[in-house]
Amino acid sequence: MQPTEPSDPDTPVAANPVFGDEPITVPRFELSDGGLNPAVAYQIVHDELMLDGNARLNLATFVTTWEEPLARRLMAESFDKNMIDKDEYPRTADLEQRCIRMLGDLWHAPDPSAVLGCSTTGSSEACMLGGLALKRRWQHRRRAAGLSTEKPNIVMGINVQICWDKFANYWDVEPRLVPMDGHRLHLGAAEAAALCDENTIGVVAVLGSTFDGSYEPVAEICAALDALEQRTGLDIPVHVDGASGAMIAPFCDPDLVWDFRLPRVASINTSGHKYGLVYPGVGWALWRDADALPDDLVFKVNYLGGEMPTFALNFSRPGGQVIAQYYQFLRLGRRGYRRVQQTCRDVATSLSAKIAALGPFTLLTDGSELPVFAFTVRPDQPFSAFDVSAALRERGWLVPAYTFPKNREDIAALRIVVRNGFSHDLAGLLLDDLGRALETLGRQTGPQRGPETAGFAHGTEKPPAR
């Protein structure tokens, strides 16, 4: 989205004289000659940021918007630590490895001490790494058998996050997207297996679709691929995109088998800055063992006096988020995470039931998997989902409205993400504001807004042809 600027682009930023310093105006798009008093510079930036939305009321984002003061203090104390400089900051590097071991144990790696992984800037980078490992393993197998490596493809549901289309585009892999069909709003096992062939580098299963919060059936997908291997000899690995669900299911659904307990699952990613409960940005990518991560993707770097392996896409990045992740693992433990995540789910299921009881809405999901639910406006109502979204925005709530992709473009939904810090009390206030909005919207003669008015973009869109 383009930034909002004054109609005259040459208009300088005005510094009100009450700030108590000179100059009164400063350039907007170029460096000033002399700089500013730090208090004035702070006030200018601070005042502009007041016009941003309130992050705590942003029910569109999965990203953490509340953290304990002590976690924030640790992050502030670590602003100057470069995560890549493991020789200079060996304790920070060790905390990263402890987090990887903890996640390996949480996700039932065959040997948590042998699991390979790294922190990333978020789950999108982690997905890229997972996809790269799938492609490289496929290339090695094909070359060893004397076969072509020219036309790799990857199978996934059309509901995957946009980072997977980016991966396919950037690394020349054909994306084979399974469309939605009827009430199936994510990837199905039979549909995934049907698209696989000798050039398939892997199947992506999403544990927690961002469209509606539903889990994809990872175990069923693996079973379908097991059957495919028995029939054809094709051995197709699975990457689980657990950006959100990999930090929900282990605590709220411990009996759900989706992780390294399934031998076909080669790698898993998650977002530490989503339900890992850390401010952005940190993600995690893990591989079940050394065979799942080709060694030629790991670089040995001599940096500032020490040699270290690196296989993240980014190099320099802050260490504070990794430190805060370790703090949260220490602070909460399994019972603490279960308490936080189950509370989020309880808020989601309670709120979704109350929204359904209002009458004008139909639930697509109820928040009983991810603490996320989607709902539509009944066709007999004189307003659209986009009208509801705009009305709630007037009251400070950011509740996105969006249309679903291919084969279900007829669905226009609203979605609410419940995160740590969104309490039953806040849910009640949202419900009150929604009720007041419905009183006004019910007096309309028909819907006033459509998809073209939405400020929220969702899902995968192909880039324009060049």
UniProtKB/TrEMBL annotation:
Region (Disordered): 442-466
Domain of life, per lineage: Bacteria
Coiled coil: none
Pfam family, one: Pyridoxal_deC
EC number annotated for this UniProt entry: 4.1.1.15
Broad enzyme group: lyase
Reaction it catalyzes: L-glutamate + H(+) = 4-aminobutanoate + CO2
InterPro entries: Glutamate_decarboxylase, PyrdxlP-dep_de-COase, PyrdxlP-dep_Trfase, PyrdxlP-dep_Trfase_major
Family of the protein in this entry: Belongs to the group II decarboxylase family.
NCBIfam families in the cross-refs: Glu-decarb-GAD (TIGR01788)
Protein name from the UniProt record: Glutamate decarboxylase
